């Protein structure tokens, strides 16, 4: 997750939320299918509850900007199937892994998150065998570029709810591995890129700039109601410019609504395109999109994303 809260606080003039060292994310879901050693235990439609606590202060130990490795970041992981009598609790400290726009051998790409529990507390059984390990995985759909998966916007440790095209719990026992696939209520995802990058782009004199926006409404395919705010934070006064319904960037003392009404999923679409970015004054720009799930005219910052672009000064 990017530093979205900091940018949002600057834009709306409100204090940013404090950064907590631990974040717990809880889910209610339903089983869609199962496969593996003890798949017969699980039936489609069965309820599933799980939660995990992450240490947000753990640093990524992998130098690859598209893949994150977070040792000991999973402080706890609990999984329960209330109607089936199956549950497992894992303590600290398991690893987490992320893959942002991971390219497979066939040329398609996907986003992937693996939450791996630590040592299992005694007592959890699956088909009479002790549960030895538990893991929860989220995978986006495998897309062909330029269509881009929106489960992640970077390889950072995700601290909010996730819902991929494929989600599953993996239990390991003496019988082998069992994969339990589930569906959650998908959380809308906002995606902002610059020149195809998610986080930071440094532009040399003469480099082009292409800023794009995308939105994934989740399983329903539409967010209704919705309010959309789009803008850019610039290095020069009056600093914040909002995109209005006429398609212009304007300064306003209050946030300007670009759109209100039902908002369907849409792919990455060009917001701004400059053949030569040096027409902009040198400095740092933050291009952002914010979507609220109401129509009250107040910016709440419910779903948001941004990308930073740095325009280098002209060469002397």
Could you explain how this protein is built, in words?
By secondary structure, the chain is an all-beta fold. The chain has two domains: 4-183, no CATH class; 189-311, Immunoglobulin-like (Sandwich), CATH 2.60.40. Helix content is 3%, strand content 49%. The protein is built from one helix and 23 strands. It has one helix spanning 4-12, and strands at 22-36, 47-55, 67-81, 86-90, 94-103, 109-116, 125-126, 129-130, 133-139, 166-173, 176-183, 189-194, 200-203, 209-216, 222-223, 227-233, 240-243, 249-250, 259-260, 263-264, 266-274, 283-292, 303-311. The strands form five sheets. It has an eight-stranded antiparallel barrel with strand order 1-2-3-5-6-9-10-11. Strands 13, 16, 17, 18, 19, 22 and 23 form a seven-stranded mixed beta sheet that branches. Strand 16 and strand 17 (240-243) form a beta hairpin. The longest helix is centred in the N-terminal third of the chain and has 9 residues, at 4-12. It is elongated. The relative contact order is 0.15. Residues 1-6 and 14-20 have low confidence and may be disordered.
Q: What is the terminal-to-terminal distance? A: 37 Å
Strand order of the largest sheet: 1-2-3-5-6-9-10-11
**Over the alpha carbons, how many angstroms does the gyration radius reach?**
22 Å
User: Roughly what percent helix?
Assistant: under 10%
List keywords for this structure.
disordered N terminus; about 325 residues; 7-stranded mixed β-sheet; mainly beta; about 50% strand; single chain; 8-stranded antiparallel beta barrel
